[in-house]
């Protein structure tokens, strides 16, 4: 089913669509018809300012992570699942409480465009 | 050891009587499962709390007062029989027989028959409406008699007599107390204290007659009876309540030849054995050292000693401290040790403040080093400290009078550190400071666990504050920080953050974080800050700066379900709804194919709404006149009500209007946790108001207000806060209580736990709210007024704001919906598909999916 497609920086939305200290969700679709849901978080007060991780909560088994509250635990930027409150690192995708890891995606803001490398 | 136990296994222990002490014995004895325990009770009920008997008239039921249940005894493996009065003991063959002729063999027999009220031999005492105050059955008789009476007299001005007077006063009778001695409570307090107590009680409308001996009860002129006194005066009354002391229930011992005291009581030794070594007597029927203990704590101590001795352990009853602290008709009274200063050479210090109604006296030894006794009327705040000085023979400070003088600044306080490990903290359950430390050694990590582990504070409850400070002190000593920080980002409790935000006029989380916190915040401190900001400033909670602080439920104004969809709960104040509005709910639910259920809070919950469906659903609801129900918020949920006097044959007030008014008044108020109300139109309590945070029950004269009830995980009945309030006073009190809770409650602390943790408990809250002891009521009311005045329906504001609506798009870059949300049909409605039921699709168009599901449901239907 899956066809290998070269990854590129693709524009998702404008930087004005971001919500400060909160998340939005986006659909990554490529030419091969693969689709993935991601959660994009804008934390202007943190080191990297913008993060993209998988939107699927592997513990709650629902696409909800973009609706979680973001913050920091021991200086690691995290999102707390809105379902059962486990923390996932926005840098590595690692769950801080259980043996789970969610995908992380390279993301940047270029000319007021939010771009993800996929 | 094991052979011993084998031998003991045959042991049959029979307990006669199931009062508080008999029950305590059973609990102690049943800890060892090797014994076959049988309880024989002459009453129709198992043990109940006689100490708090008067609360029966304050709304508590027999079940509330019960200390055990048949199920609990079955769990313990205890055999029991009620209505089984023991009439004979065969000491040789070792069996007892009951009135109905059943016999029970025993190896050890425990008599816990208690006492009965003494009724002086006054001619005319045996007529109708001449009653006593001892059991729940007595209370039922009193209540029945009060219904056809206007005036009531209590004969006896002791501790129990005053409680009885309070009970008939609560029943609405004009109340008198008649005492033979020249003062009230002559056993516990001195003349000076007695004078002040009398003044305070008379201020409450109870007339006190001292130095009166009743010679005969005759037919009355204006009332049912009249009491004729030996000084030729008279008193007219309809109801007579005798409370002239207790007498031990010792007739079994008398008839079957156990050693007795001259004036009654079954003689026991230090192991609580009677003159027959196989028979024990405990509690108020037992005479130890020629003394009968009429308090529950010594009875419990005897029960423990007897249980230990029967199981072959060591233990001795060596007398008990009779100090007592209580509240009589709202008047605080404390008596410690030698209250009358009878010890030779003793000296006294007295402080009296007539305008404020406070009297305090301490009795010290001749060398002024030891405290011997004390009397406290009107203010018992020093009781715990004074009691510890006496019980532990702690040396008094240079000027002992400082202990009772009202100069807060230089008052010598006795730190809990100064107490020896042997100091008794809870005298009901005989828990020492050492026991509390041991409980912490065994792993108790908070005061709640200390209490449940040691039972400390679960008797009369008078020591609760002391238990907490001993435990907290111990936690602090071992570096277990009694942690109040809400999370790693703020070293403050919710209450402290509340003060910071109000005092420094902070309006955003960012300001708060940069001034007082560290890091980026988290899912704990952000919603707390949002809640406090909402309480203090009452901004629309989804205003830009607050948006990221909210839990998803608050952000999307709905409760997130396990599959990421939301529920929709419009407000249906008081559960009252027009047929037209009900039809709108049905139509909306049908159109969007939502699972529909009536909630426990008397409203309608619509489940399965995707984020993108929430705005159109709410637009239709708002257009039809609905507003948000705040089912997602830590805020007022529902006010449950009955139809009240408008429809019901029994209703005495219009509970429906009251419920609707209250719901509209407090809707949207942000609090530490959710808040539920109940309003019942009469004492039948159909709205279950006593299980709500704020419970209101109609009376003939107004409303009774209960605070701190809860169903849920840890059910709790609300405390009766005030009685017979008019509408305005009720709302005023509720305003203040809620605002005080909003300011001082911990994060996610329901009012029930808040009440349990409030130092000083109900009495403290009553002082704050009704007497304005903190001087904050004006502020509390103004804050509530501001919040009520700036209410807005969050859904109405949201659907009118295009910017806010952006959040409800499923994806920033696509109109597709989340393919992981799938439903199947069950009982003609949708439910979330379980893992195996889900169709492995990548993503399908939302609209198509909806139409398909709707069609499928239509076909099935």
Report on the architecture of this protein.
Chain A contains no helices and twelve strands. Chain A is mainly β and 118 residues long. Chain A has a single domain (9-117), classed as 3-layer Sandwich (Rieske Iron-sulfur Protein), CATH 2.102.10. A four-stranded antiparallel β-sheet of chain A has the order 2-3-4-10, with no helix packed on it. Chain A has a three-stranded antiparallel β-sheet with strand order 1-12-11, with no helix packed on it. In chain A, strand 2 and strand 3 (35-42) form a beta hairpin. Chain A is globular and about 35 Å long. In chain A, 42% of the residues are buried. With 861 residues, chain B is α/β, with parallel strands linked by helices. Among the domains of chain B are: 2-116 and 248-310, 3-Layer(bba) Sandwich (FAD/NAD(P)-binding domain), CATH 3.50.50.60; 130-244, 3-Layer(bba) Sandwich (FAD/NAD(P)-binding domain); 494-550, no CATH class; 634-792, 2-Layer Sandwich (Sulfite Reductase Hemoprotein, domain 1), CATH 3.30.413.10. Chain B has a five-stranded parallel β-sheet with strand order 3-2-1-7-19, covered by helices on one side. Chain B is globular, with a radius of gyration of 32 Å. Chain A binds chain B through residues 12-13, 17, 19-22, 24-27, 29, 33-35, 37, 40, 43, 45-46, 56, 60-64, 67-75, 77-78, 80, 82-83, 85, and chain B through 488-489, 519-523, 525-527, 544, 547-552, 555-556, 560, 562-564, 806-807, 810-814, 816, 818, 820-821, 835, 842-843.
Summarize the helices and strands and which ones pair or pack.
The complex is a heterodimer of chains A (118) and B (861).
Chain A: E1 9-14, E2 22-29, E3 35-42, E4 50-54, E5 56-57, E6 62-63, E7 69-73, E8 76-80, E9 87-89, E10 104-105, E11 107-110, E12 113-117
Antiparallel strand pairs in A: 1-12, 2-3, 3-4, 4-10, 5-6, 7-8, 8-9, 11-12
Chain B: H1 2-8, E1 12-16, H2 20-29, E2 36-40, H3 62-65, H4 70-76, E3 79-81, E4 86-90, E5 95-98, E6 103-105, E7 108-111, E8 115-117, E9 130-132, H5 136-147, E10 151-155, H6 159-170, E11 174-178, H7 191-203, E12 207-209, E13 214-219, E14 225-229, E15 234-237, E16 239-242, E17 246-248, H8 251-255, E18 266-268, E19 279-281, E20 286-288, H9 296-310, E21 324-328, E22 331-337, E23 347-353, E24 358-364, E25 371-377, H10 383-391, E26 424-426, E27 431-432, H11 433-441, H12 447-454, H13 464-477, H14 494-503, H15 509-516, H16 525-537, H17 544-547, H18 552-555, E28 559-560, E29 566-568, H19 579-591, E30 595-598, E31 604-609, H20 614-623, E32 636-641, H21 655-666, E33 675-680, E34 694-699, E35 702-707, E36 719-725, H22 727-744, H23 751-757, H24 761-770, H25 777-789, H26 794-799, H27 802-805, E37 823-826, E38 829-832, H28 846-860
Parallel strand pairs in B: 1-2, 1-7, 2-3, 7-19, 9-16, 10-11, 10-16, 11-12, 18-20, 32-33, 33-34
Antiparallel strand pairs in B: 4-5, 5-6, 8-17, 13-14, 14-15, 21-22, 22-25, 23-24, 24-25, 26-27, 28-29, 29-31, 30-31, 34-35, 35-36, 37-38
Helix pairs in contact in B: 2-9, 11-12, 11-13, 14-16, 22-25
């Amino acid at each position: 089913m899956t066809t290998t497609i070269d990854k590129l920086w693709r524009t998702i939305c404008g930087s004005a669509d971001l919500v400060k200290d909160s998340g939005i969700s986006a659909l990554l679709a490529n030419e091969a018809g693969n689709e993935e849901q991601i959660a994009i978080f804008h934390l202007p007060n943190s080191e990297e300012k913008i993060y993209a991780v998988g939107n699927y909560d592997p513990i709650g088994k629902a696409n909800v992570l973009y609706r979680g509250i973001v913050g920091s635990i021991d200086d690691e930027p995290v999102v707390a699942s809105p379902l059962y409150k486990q923390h996932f690192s926005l840098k590595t995708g690692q769950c801080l409480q259980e043996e789970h890891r969610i995908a992380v995606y390279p993301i940047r803001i270029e000319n007021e465009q939010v771009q993800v490398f996929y | 050891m094991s052979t011993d136990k084998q031998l003991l296994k045959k042991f049959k222990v029979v307990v006669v009587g199931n009062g508080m002490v008999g029950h305590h014995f059973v609990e102690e004895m049943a800890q060892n499962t090797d014994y076959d325990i049988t309880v024989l009770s002459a009453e129709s009920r198992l043990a109940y709390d006689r100490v708090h008997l008067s609360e029966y008239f304050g709304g508590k039921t027999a079940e509330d007062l019960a200390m055990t249940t048949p199920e609990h005894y079955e769990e313990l493996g205890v055999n029991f029989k009620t209505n089984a009065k023991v009439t004979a003991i065969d000491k040789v063959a070792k069996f007892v027989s009951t009135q109905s002729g059943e016999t029970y063999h025993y190896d050890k027999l425990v008599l816990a028959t208690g006492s009965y009220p003494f009724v002086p031999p006054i001619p005319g005492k045996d007529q109708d409406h001449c009653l006593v105050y001892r059991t729940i059955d007595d209370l039922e008789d009193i209540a029945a008699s009060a219904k056809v009476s206007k005036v009531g007299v209590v004969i006896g001005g002791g501790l129990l007599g005053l409680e009885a007077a309070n009970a008939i006063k609560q029943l609405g009778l004009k109340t008198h107390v008649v005492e033979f001695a020249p003062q009230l409570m002559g056993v516990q307090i001195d003349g000076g204290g007695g004078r002040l107590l009398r003044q305070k009680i008379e201020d409450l409308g109870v007339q006190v007659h001292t130095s009166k001996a009743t010679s005969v009860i005759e037919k009355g002129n204006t009332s049912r009876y009249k009491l004729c006194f030996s000084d030729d005066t008279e008193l007219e009354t309809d109801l007579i309540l005798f409370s002239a002391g207790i007498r031990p229930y010792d007739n079994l011992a008398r008839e079957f030849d156990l050693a007795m005291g001259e004036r009654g009581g079954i003689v026991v030794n230090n192991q609580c054995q009677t003159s027959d070594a196989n028979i024990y007597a405990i509690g108020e029927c037992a005479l130890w050292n020629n003394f009968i203990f009429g308090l529950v704590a010594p009875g419990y101590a005897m029960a423990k000693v007897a249980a230990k001795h029967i199981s072959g352990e060591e233990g001795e009853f060596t007398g008990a401290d009779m100090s007592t602290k209580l509240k009589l008709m709202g008047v605080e009274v404390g008596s410690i040790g030698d209250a009358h200063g009878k010890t030779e050479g003793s000296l006294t210090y007295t402080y009296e403040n007539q305008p404020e109604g406070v009297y305090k006296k301490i009795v010290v030894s001749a060398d002024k080093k030891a405290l011997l006794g004390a009397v406290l009327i009107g203010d018992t705040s020093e009781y715990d400290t004074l009691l510890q000085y006496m019980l532990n023979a702690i040396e008094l400070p240079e000027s002992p009078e400082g202990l009772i003088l009202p100069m807060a600044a230089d008052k010598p306080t006795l730190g809990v550190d100064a107490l020896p490990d042997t100091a008794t903290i809870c005298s009901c359950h005989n828990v020492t400071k050492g026991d509390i430390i041991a409980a912490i050694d065994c792993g108790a990590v908070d005061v709640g666990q200390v209490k449940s582990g040691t039972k400390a504070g679960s008797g009369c409850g008078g020591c609760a504050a002391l238990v907490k400070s001993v435990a907290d002190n111990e936690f602090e000593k071992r570096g277990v920080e009694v942690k109040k920080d809400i999370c790693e980002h703020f070293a403050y409790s919710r209450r402290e953050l509340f003060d910071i935000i109000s005092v420094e006029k902070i309006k955003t989380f960012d300001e708060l974080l940069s001034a007082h916190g560290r890091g980026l915040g988290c899912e704990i401190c952000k919603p707390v800050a949002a809640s406090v900001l909402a309480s203090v400033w009452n901004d629309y909670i989804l205003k830009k700066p607050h948006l990221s602080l909210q839990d998803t439920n608050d952000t999307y104004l709905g409760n997130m379900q396990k599959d990421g969809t939301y529920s929709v709960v419009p407000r249906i104040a008081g559960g009252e709804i027009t047929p037209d509005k009900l039809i709108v709910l049905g139509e909306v639910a049908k159109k969007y194919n939502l699972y529909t259920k009536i909630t426990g809070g008397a409203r309608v919950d619509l489940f399965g709404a995707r984020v993108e469906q929430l705005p159109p659903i709410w637009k239709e609801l708002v257009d039809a006149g609905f507003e948000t129900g705040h089912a997602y918020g830590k805020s007022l949920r529902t006010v449950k009500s009955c139809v009240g006097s408008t429809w019901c044959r029994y209703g005495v007030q219009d509970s429906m209007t009251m419920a609707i008014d209250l719901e509209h008044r407090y809707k949207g108020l942000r609090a530490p946790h959710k808040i539920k109300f109940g309003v019942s139109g009469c004492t039948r309590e159909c709205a279950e108001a006593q299980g709500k945070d704020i419970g209101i029950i109609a009376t003939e004269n107004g409303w009774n207000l209960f605070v701190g009830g809860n169903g849920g995980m840890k059910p709790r009945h609300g405390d009766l806060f005030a009685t017979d309030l008019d509408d305005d006073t009720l709302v005023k009190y509720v305003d203040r209580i809620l605002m005080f809770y909003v300011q001082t409650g911990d994060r996610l602390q329901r009012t029930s736990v808040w009440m349990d943790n409030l130092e000083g408990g109900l009495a403290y809250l009553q002082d704050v709210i009704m007497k304005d002891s903190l001087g904050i009521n004006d502020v509390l009311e103004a804050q509530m007024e501001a919040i009520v005045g700036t209410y807005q329906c969050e859904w109405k504001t949201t659907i009118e704001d295009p910017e806010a609506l952006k959040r409800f798009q499923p994806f920033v870059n696509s109109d597709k919906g989340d393919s992981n949300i799938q439903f199947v049909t069950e009982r003609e409605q949708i439910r979330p598909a379980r893992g195996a039921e889900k169709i492995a699709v990548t993503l399908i168009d939302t609209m198509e999916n909806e139409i398909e599901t709707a069609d499928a449901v239509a076909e099935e239907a």
